[in-house]
């Protein structure tokens, strides 16, 4: 059975390979340090049969954004700088790609961000897509490209709340 849990030293970070050296290195060398320092939180997708093997991971953090770069129609709605959530990284192991693991983790990340938004103010979620394929993946969840920055994407918190309620994910854990 698949589950998502916080990254710990017990997880086998060295064996993880998503095909992107920068993401592999982050998980292996930096993620636990950033958790310890309170910079970000990394969550891993594991199977209960082999709970130390990482099938995928995502990292969440907070950020401060310059709102003049927001997509048309959003830039003028906020002060010059505003707080937001950042999906800093999302990766799936090569042997698990194209099996819905990314969508599973994205849904979990959005759920966690919604919980945060109930307690602190954020205008939405930001993500830096690595390439056009990644951008296409995020756009299916409603992300919009920033003005003049086609690989930097934004999902307004109101859009996330509305989509979540319409899909009735509230009953999932």
Keywords:
single chain, 173 residues, alpha+beta, Aminopeptidase, 4 helices, 7 strands, 33% strand, globular
Describe this protein's structure.
This protein has one domain: Aminopeptidase, CATH 3.40.630. It is of the alpha+beta class. A hairpin with a 2-residue loop joins strand 6 and strand 7. Helix 2 packs across helix 4. The chain contains 4 helices and 7 strands; from the N terminus they run E-H-E-E-E-H-E-H-E-E-H. The two termini are 13 Å apart. Helix content is 31%, strand content 33%. The chain has a 7-stranded mixed beta sheet. The longest helix has 17 residues.
Summing up helix and strand content along with how strands pair, one would put the structural category as alpha+beta
In which order are the strands of the major sheet placed?
A: 1-2-3-4-5-7-6
* Major sheet: 7 strands, mixed
Helix content: 25-40%
Count of structural domains: 1
SSE arrangement, N to C = EHEEEHEHEEH
Report how far apart the termini are.
Answer: 13 Å
Q: Strand fraction band?
A: 25-35%
As a whole number of angstroms, the C-alpha radius of gyration is: 16 Å
The CATH fourth-level homologous superfamily = Gcn5-related N-acetyltransferase (GNAT)
Poorly predicted runs of 5 or more residues: none
CATH class: Alpha Beta
Task: From the 3D structure, determine the CATH topology.
Answer: Aminopeptidase
The count of DSSP E runs of length 2 or more, i.e. the number of strands, is 7
Average pLDDT value? 92
Number of helices: 4
CATH architectural type = 3-Layer(aba) Sandwich
Shape type: globular
């Amino acid at each position: 059975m698949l589950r998502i849990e916080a990254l710990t030293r017990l997880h086998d970070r060295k064996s993880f390979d998503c095909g992107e050296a920068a993401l592999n290195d982050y998980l292996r060398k930096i993620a636990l340090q950033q958790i310890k320092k309170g910079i970000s939180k990394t969550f891993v997708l594991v199977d209960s049969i082999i709970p130390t093997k990482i099938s995928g991971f995502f990292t969440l953090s907070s950020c401060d954004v310059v709102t003049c770069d927001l997509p048309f129609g959003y830039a003028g709605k906020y002060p010059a700088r505003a707080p937001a959530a950042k999906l800093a990284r999302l990766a799936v192991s090569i042997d698990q790609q194209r099996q819905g693991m990314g969508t599973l983790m994205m849904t979990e990340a959005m759920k966690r961000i919604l919980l945060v938004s109930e307690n602190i103010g954020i205008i939405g979620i930001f993500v830096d897509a690595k390439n056009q394929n990644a951008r296409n993946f995020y756009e299916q969840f409603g992300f919009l490209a920033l003005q003049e920055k086609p690989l930097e994407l934004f999902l307004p918190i109101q859009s996330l709340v509305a989509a979540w309620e319409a899909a009735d994910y509230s009953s999932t854990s």
